[in-house]
Amino acid sequence: MPLIVEGRVPSGWEQKGNSRPAVAGSNARRADSVSLALINNMPDPALEDTELQFFELLDLASGDVPVFLKLYSLTGIPRTDRGQRRLNSFYFALDELWKSPIDGLIMTGTEPRCANLREEPYWSVLTEVLDWAERNTASSVLSCLAAHAGVLHSDGIGRHALPDKQFGVFDFANTASHPLTANTGERICFPHSRWNDVRAEELAVCGYTVLTRSDESGVDAFIKKKKRSLFVHFQGHPEYGAGTLLKEYRRDIKRFLRKERETYPSMPKGYFDPAATRLLTEFRDVVLSDRREELMEGFPEVAVARSLQHRWQPSAIGIYRNWLQHLAAKKAEIPAFSAAVPAFHMKSRKRSARS
């Protein structure tokens, strides 16, 4: 069943042949549908890409469950005129969220401006959303910086600065038997792009369950029940597209050439094949010998992009499909989550047989 975007459909998604807008409160909603709020706080250059990444992921993960989605963004995040126009065109105001019955919420992070997250200009409205989600959703997903903000607000868990950016695609072990990671295999991989870390031992003391982690890159996914909502936290980005890390790497190199950062960025780990690595290493050597922004014209983006593989997509679809099933089960008031999965698939087979 396809994802249905409520309100005006963003042009990028519509151009992919997904022109399926729905009006809020539409009679087309089935009793077993799931309603979501996506609070997209990414900076303007990544705003549209993030929309499409989540649209595609939720569309692929939805299976037989109709998923209705509304777009929101926090106030207080700096926007250019172009970015604000996009919000005005496709996003609902937060006042609409308070009165909208939703099953699940997804909140992205944004680029931090302050070392202390509590000093960010959007902190008060972010915490208002988090408190609201605890009481008014069956489950909420917090991604990257939003995950750090969530644990800081509810449990006072601070984040720790890393010596270098945790950047690349990393393999993680499933460390807890939980329905959210069911059928995803003993190991999963997800992209990470962060300068800070929350630690497993501090999460455990405050009652969080770590679902996936590795010795190299630490905690990936972790959960905790907060009031009526199961909060799911990702330090990484399951939603990323195949080329997202390449775009970030290119952006960071450009910042180096503009002297907006002092060091040449580290190459993302576990992402490029040997041929792409060789091309990018050669480009780095040229740049380090002659630091000029004009050299970005020679960045081998097209050649490198051809070799990229979206190898974490099966893991992302699996964990988000389990999450949507959890929401559908809670909405149907199925008492045990474990019983919801086979019931969900049984309905899918029956409908397929009738079609």
CATH class bucket of the largest domain: Alpha Beta
CATH topology type of the largest domain: Rossmann fold
Query: If classified by CATH, what would the architecture of the largest domain be?
Result: 3-Layer(aba) Sandwich
CATH superfamily of the largest domain: Class I glutamine amidotransferase (GATase) domain
Low-confidence stretches: 19-27, 334-355
Instruction: Report the strand count.
Output: 10
- The rough form would be described as globular
Distance, first to last CA: 13 Å
Describe, in plain words, how this protein is organized in 3D:
The chain has helices spanning 11-15, 44-61, 81-90, 94-98, 123-136, 145-155, 200-205, 244-257, 274-289, 301-305, 313-331, 337-354; strands at residues 3-5, 34-39, 67-72, 104-107, 139-143, 160-174, 187-197, 209-214, 218-226, 229-234. The protein has 355 residues and is of the alpha/beta class. It has two domains: 3-241 and 311-354, Class I glutamine amidotransferase (GATase) domain (Rossmann fold), CATH 3.40.50; 244-305, no CATH class. A ten-stranded mixed sheet has the order 1-3-2-4-5-10-9-8-6-7. Strand 9 and strand 10 (229-234) form a beta hairpin. Helix 11 (313-331) crosses helix 12.
Secondary structure blueprint with pairings:
Elements: E1 3-5, H1 11-15, E2 34-39, H2 44-61, E3 67-72, H3 81-90, H4 94-98, E4 104-107, H5 123-136, E5 139-143, H6 145-155, E6 160-174, E7 187-197, H7 200-205, E8 209-214, E9 218-226, E10 229-234, H8 244-257, H9 274-289, H10 301-305, H11 313-331, H12 337-354
Helix pairs in contact: 2-11, 11-12
